[in-house]
Design brief:
Layout (H helix, E strand, L loop, with lengths): L1 H36 L3 H13 L10 H11 L3 H12 L21 H5 L16 H4 L2 H7 L17 H14 L7 H8 L3 H16 L1 H10 L3
Helix pairs in contact: 3-4, 3-8, 4-10, 8-9
Protein name: Lytic transglycosylase domain-containing protein
Keywords: Membrane, Transmembrane, Transmembrane helix
Organism: Psychrobacillus faecigallinarum
Length: 223
Amino acid sequence: MTSKKQKSYKWKLWSIILLLPVTITVYVLLIVSWQELRKIPAVQEWATSIQKSTTKIDVPGEYIPIYKDAADEYGIPWTLLAAHHRIETKFSTMDPLLSPVGAEGHMQFMPCTFVGWSHPSCGGLGLGEIPEEDKINPAVIAQYGGYGIDANGDGYADPFDLEDAIYSAANYLAASGAADGEIEKAIFNYNRSNKYVEDVLHFYHLYEKQLATLQTATVQDGL
């Protein structure tokens, strides 16, 4: 029995050794053939359509019109807002929308940045001791030079309201240089971390590359 098993094992081993060059040759021929086929216009068009159809778009379609409206209002790329939203709260899927250091809402504003650093309680990292009713009061925000915006005209500038938060982020990024094309400077001002800048830039550039696909998806969704 042992001898038969050894012979069977040797036969399998030799079969693998003999078939290996054939397998490699077939693999190489397939690659070369595909490269040649790709030169044919019809095949090239088919491959491009397949690539587009499998491109992953992780920006929620319902948010894109808000990004665009806010971006148009403040003269910045809407893809930058999408990138910040992705990094800050993973498109508002973080629960709760409150960071350990006190950043609030969909776009994670520190209260002093949202209401204004001239508020008498502001200092340090920007948590402040601002009454809750003042945090969302447009008149108080205007008084202290904050970046909070009442985007939907309901009388409140609320970082926990999606439209208000995105418009406020657009306001802040524009004032920080994004409206003048200084994208990296604006991102750094939003969160003074080189790693944060790298992370936001990664998604910003990704969304810029996917812009045509994203716009197509928006039209198809009727947005």
